[in-house]
Write a structure and sequence with these properties.
The structure holds 2 protein chains of 2 kinds. Chain A contains 10 helices and 13 strands. By secondary structure, chain A is an alpha/beta fold. Chain A folds into 2 domains: about 50-145 and about 245-285, Periplasmic binding protein-like II (D-Maltodextrin-Binding Protein, domain 2, 3-Layer(aba) Sandwich), CATH 3.40.190; about 150-235, Periplasmic binding protein-like II (D-Maltodextrin-Binding Protein, domain 2, 3-Layer(aba) Sandwich). The longest helix of chain A has 22 residues, at about 1-25. The N and C termini of chain A lie far apart (about 65 Å). By secondary structure, chain B is an all-alpha fold. Chain B has a single domain (about 1-210), classed as MetI-like (MetI-like fold, Orthogonal Bundle). In chain B, about 80% of the residues lie in helices and about 0% in strands. The model of chain B has no long low-confidence stretch (mean pLDDT about 95). Classes of the chains: A alpha/beta, B mainly alpha. The interface between A and B is medium-sized, with 23 and 17 residues.
């Protein structure tokens, strides 16, 4: 009997070890001996703070996009979500506690506020433009990146579109519920708007000649150009807005917001932000921007 | 509530699009449905088979899939239609399959003796169908057809996936602009009920009026 039991126990331990190893992720700092040894590396947080709660729980749910090239996109081979937003989330969570595991949850543009308000996610890093309407429902740390709205056209720019004004009278595509789309409605009211749930549908529609232009943040457009090929699409290259990407957290949690802002400044200073940028968005652009100053409103 | 009132014009516009989408698709679905049902009871085996294949394929595919296949797939074989026209065609084809099955069920309510009498009198298949069977069959299935119409009203919301901004699309736009999802979508639910409930009542009245008293 006891032999069987010990076998079972051994098996259980083996399964647990495999699970832990599988969940640990591909980072180079996987468990170098858990336990009392590196207790000194675990940061202390004020009692009762969100950071302390997360550290205690050992997990955090983070909302991001799963289909946003360069920022948050599922890698079909590994099943892991990858991109600049994901890197930023990892860098922040790392400071909450090195052993805290991140569970990424898909948050498309339209459901981000709701997901934060309902507590489905504790933090959203999802190409999330900071604006006042959203600030009424949630709070933003950051910005950690500033994009700008630009226009993508078929290569050669047959209709000679140079900026927002030129979109009047043209067929323009963007994503439902996005800031760029609202911007077109307000500032180029003569545009005939087509809207989909994801940008690849807009790109398909333009390839088929159904729309004349696709507009959204420049980095997203660069990602589409990379995906479809420079012989198919090109970006006009004259951004006409500033879209500060922030980190969405529950309204009123100022302690958490300050913590994230502090951490952002830390990774700006130590170069980790730049490294994260090069690894992700850097794939489609040689320009490495300066990190934007955080806005402690 | 304020948000709903402020955007009332847009809701009305979305509702109008939903109505025109539904009305046009219903005409298309009805024509397709009656035609296919007729083929399926007709004397030509290949056409019977074609009718059956159409009904089973379309009826067993999710509507969302049909939208994507038609709108994004057909351009690769050179068929590019505007979004509203595409939506009307897809909804007609989809609902048509259900109408066909309903009408075929209606055919079965017509007594066999009537068909035999009609053929004995020398009526052709088309004459028999048009003058004897169809008028009775349709009257028998007014209720089920009404349910299909109500389903079509609700299904028309999927046209938003190809950027036809009907009631659901409008609701979605307003909700994302204001970041107020609950009141805006509750208003949309009420608007859909305002469309579907009276439809049910009217269908009920028609059903009683045209009922065959035997």
């Amino acid at each position: 009997m006891s032999r069987i039991r010990s076998h079972r126990l051994g098996l259980l331990v083996l399964v647990l070890v495999v699970l832990v190893a599988a969940c640990g992720g591909g980072d180079d700092e996987v468990d170098t001996g858990t336990g009392a040894g590196d207790a000194t590396e675990v940061p202390e947080h004020p009692e009762g703070s969100t950071m302390a709660e997360i550290q205690e729980a050992g997990t955090i749910t983070v909302g991001t996009k799963f289909d946003q090239r360069l920022f948050g996109q599922t890698n079909p081979r590994t099943g892991e979500v990858e991109g600049f937003d994901v890197e930023i989330a990892k860098l922040i969570v790392e400071a909450i506690g090195p052993d805290v595991e991140i569970e990424f949850v898909e948050t498309p543009s339209a459901i981000r506020e709701t997901a934060i308000q309902e507590g489905t996610v504790q933090m959203v890093v999802a190409t999330y433009t900071i604006n006042d309407a959203r600030k009424e429902k949630i709070d933003f740390a950051g910005p950690y990146y500033v994009a700008g709205q630009d226009i993508m056209v078929p290569t050669g720019n047959p209709l000679d579109i140079g900026g927002l004004d030129d979109l009047n009278g043209k067929r323009v595509c963007s994503v439902s519920g996005s800031t760029p789309l609202q911007n077109v409605r307000t500032n180029a009211p003569g545009a005939e708007v087509t809207e989909f749930d994801v940008y690849t549908k807009c790109a398909d529609a333009m390839r088929d000649g159904r729309v004349d232009a696709v507009t959204t943040d420049n980095v997203i457009l660069l990602g589409l150009v990379e995906q479809y090929g420079a012989e198919v699409f090109e970006v006009v290259g004259d951004p006409f807005t500033t879209e500060p990407y922030g980190i969405g957290i529950p309204k009123g949690d100022d302690q958490f917001r300050t913590f994230i802002n502090d951490r952002l400044e830390e990774i700006y200073a130590n170069g980790e932000w730049t490294e994260a940028f090069k690894r992700t968005v850097g794939a489609v652009t040689d320009e490495i921007p300066e990190p934007p100053p955080v806005d402690r409103y | 509530m304020d948000i709903v009132l402020e955007n009332f014009d847009r809701f009305v516009q979305g509702l109008t699009t939903t109505l025109s989408l539904t009305a046009l698709s219903w005409v298309g679905a009805f024509v397709i449905g009656v035609a296919v049902a007729s083929l399926r009871v007709g004397p030509i085996p290949p056409l019977r088979g074609a009718g059956a294949v159409y009904v089973e394929v379309v009826r067993n595919c999710p509507l969302t899939v049909l939208f994507v296949v038609f709108y994004f797939g057909f351009p690769s074989i050179g068929i590019i239609l505007p979004k509203f026209a595409s939506a009307v065609i897809i909804l007609s084809v989809y609902t048509g399959a259900f109408v066909a099955e309903t009408v075929r069920a209606g055919f079965n309510t017509v007594a066999r003796g009537q068909v035999e009498a009609a053929r004995t009198l020398g009526l052709s298949f088309a004459q028999m169908l048009g003058m004897v069977v169809l008028p009775q069959a349709l009257r028998a299935v007014v209720g089920p057809l009404g349910s299909l119409l109500s389903a079509l009203i609700r299904n028309s919301s999927i046209a938003f996936s190809i950027s036809v901004i009907e009631l659901t699309g409008t609701t979605f736009q307003i909700a994302t602009e204001t970041a107020e999802f609950i009141p805006v979508f509750v208003a949309a639910a009420v608007a859909y009920l305002l469309l579907t409930l009276p439809t049910g009542l009217v269908v009920g009245v028609i059903e009683r009026r045209v009922a065959i008293k035997r």
